[in-house]
Amino acid sequence: MPATSFTSLPILGNHVATSPSVASSTSGSDHLTLAVLGCGTMGVTILKRILDQLAEMDAPRPLQVITSSASVASMSALYSSHASSAAGAAGATSAAGAPDDMPDRLPTHFLACVRRPEVGKRVRAALWSHSSAVKVVVDDNVHAVQQAGVVILACQSSEAEDLLAAPGMARALSGKLLISICAGITADQVEEYLYGSSPDAAALTVATTDAVSSAHGRCRIVRAIPNAASLIGESMTVIDTATSTGALPADLVALVTWIFRRIGSVVHHPHQSLTKPAKTAAASRAAASSAAASTALGTAGPAFFALMLEAAIDGAVAMGMSRAEAQLMAAQSMRGAAGLVLQNNEHPALLRDRISTPGGCAVHGLLALEEGGVRSTIARAMREATAAAAQEGSQ
Ligand SMILES: NC(=O)c1ccc[n+]([C@@H]2O[C@H](COP(=O)([O-])OP(=O)(O)OC[C@H]3O[C@@H](n4cnc5c(N)ncnc54)[C@H](OP(=O)(O)O)[C@@H]3O)[C@@H](O)[C@H]2O)c1
């Protein structure tokens, strides 16, 4: 992995304008600064994976063939600036293996905001290979946000209110994009921490999204909830594109998506194919329930599967296997099943059928699972988790 070298770009050079369109503007400054507020497990993981990806895009490609003047232009853009590199690298493979819908602009400068010097030291060590691109800011969130165009809120959920209510924070965020990854906190709550209220719902129905943001001098708040597998680039992140200031414009959806594709896969709510808001009360209830189910499956899913792993391991240990070997085999079998379903996009029942040879061990085990009501118990667990996620969203 090549070290990131943005040496030609001053870390705190030009920054994204505080216009309401935030990072959506393609004109003006080449620089887009991303500030991460709170650099613990998630903040550092997200930063590191973005920086790794940018470094990879910047690395020389020995076998690249330039076939047209357009390609020459895009190549020179690629090597001269990350900001311009988006178009040149369109079609690049994402962490999750699928081509990205590249945003107009990518972040070029990074501010890692911590509140304690010892955490700053840890962050510097974790990001040492990208040290020319990242500045660690200790106990100065507002100043960092003033210089950023895009901000990720990655502190503990219980600390978010204090962080956002700091004097000058609401003003510093004005017109910018604020991405909250804080589980258990809704976009409306973030609004309230910042401004003391949600934006006037009536205004949202008549104004364009840009007009809404600027009229209120507020930031755009997007909720993107990753899961624990972010650490290994296998997150299932749910991005809520229906922000409190209206639907997120496509270029910002692309930017948020690009960021979270660095740590795994992404789904959007409302689904990107649903460009129009739900017309009936029933349709909007169904959309809300589906969004809550997404959050539940994305965040709680790994916990459910961990329980299944534990049970399989315990069973194998009871039959005489060593725990270490049972754990390796169970986890690899689960990864294999998931990989087959993802790769072939086939119904899991087909996989189950293929494995269940007549008189074989799989069919015997599967019948025991069905007798134990595992299918309905897991489905009920999903419904309970969805209800809890919906409750969280309505608070
Ligand atoms: N971890 C996951 O798997 C996961 C999954 C989905 C969502 N999330 C969400 O992601 C967020 C971060 O989770 P995490 O696991 O990364 O937590 P974490 O490791 O505890 O990191 C949070 C960081 O925020 C810092 N912080 C708190 N207040 C701050 C302030 N005012 N200014 C600057 N920094 C501040 C903390 O600093 P100190 O060290 O000084 O306390 C800590 O380093 C949480 O809201 C969580 O709900 C996490």
UniProtKB/TrEMBL annotation:
Entry annotated with the keyword Oxidoreductase: yes
Chain ranges of the Pyrroline-5-carboxylate reductase catalytic N-terminal domain: 107-184
A molecular function GO annotation: pyrroline-5-carboxylate reductase activity
Name of the protein in its database record: Pyrroline-5-carboxylate reductase
Keyword tags: NADP, Oxidoreductase
Protein family per UniProt: Belongs to the pyrroline-5-carboxylate reductase family.
Keyword NADP attached: yes
Top-rank taxon: Eukaryota
Gene source species: Ophiostoma piceae (strain UAMH 11346) (Sap stain fungus)
Cross-referenced HAMAP family: P5C_reductase
Pyrroline-5-carboxylate reductase dimerisation domain segment(s): 292-390
